[in-house]
Structures are given as C-alpha cells and as structure tokens.
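Module 6 notes. Inverse folding takes a fixed backbone as the condition and produces residue identities as the prediction. Think of it as a translation problem where the source language is geometry and the target language is the twenty amino acids. Below is one complete input and output pair. Work through it position by position during the lab.
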C-alpha cells in the first residue's frame, strides 16, 4: 500500500494536543503513529530505540518537549519559550529529513 506519512506533521499534532491539555491524545499519537514511523524511517527494528542515533535523539528530545508542554513545572513565560523552541526544532527536522519526511508505506 502506498500511503504518504509526514513525520513533522505528526509531531505538530502531538504539540497541538499537548497545548490543549489533551495528554491522552498526545501520548496516543506518539505511541501509535509517531514512534513506529520514526523507527521505520530511521531503518530501525520494532524494539530499537530511535534515540540510538544522533538525529533520532534530536527528534526524541523534541517529542518529549512536546509531550511535557503542559507540565506545571513551567511558568507561562517558560512555556512560551519552550513552544518557540519546539517549533524551531520542527523546522530543523523538516529541513534535515527531506529524504524521508514523506515516507511511503
């Protein structure tokens, strides 16, 4: 089956769900969509961790930032800075993964 999947777009959905405080949806998107596709895009097996590669680590850190955006440990100012950082990282990811940003499965 030929289906295009855009990893940065899925990461943005995680960010949006987290911003709305919908932690369940953010974690579900992460678990069911983002992580398996990231593994496939990086050529890793089912149990391999994407963070085992330098670029995978960068993406993994960005995802963790997105999942924790609503954490009480952040002040509103810190949260706004974190959001800017996340979106800057998403742009970097888009630039760096041009060769697999859209993956055919």
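Target side of the pair, the amino acids:
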């Amino acid at each position: 089956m030929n289906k295009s999947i855009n990893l940065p777009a899925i990461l943005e959905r995680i960010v949006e769900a987290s911003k709305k405080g919908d932690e369940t949806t953010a974690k579900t998107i992460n678990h069911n969509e983002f992580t398996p596709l990231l593994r496939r895009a990086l050529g890793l097996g089912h149990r391999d961790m994407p963070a085992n590669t330098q670029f995978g680590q960068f993406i993994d850190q960005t995802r963790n930032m997105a999942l924790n955006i609503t954490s009480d440990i952040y002040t509103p100012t810190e949260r706004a800075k974190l959001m800017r950082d996340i979106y800057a990282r998403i742009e970097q990811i888009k630039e760096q993964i041009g060769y697999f940003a859209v993956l055919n499965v």
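Reference fact for the lab report: The helical segments are 7-19, 23-41, 54-67, 76-96.
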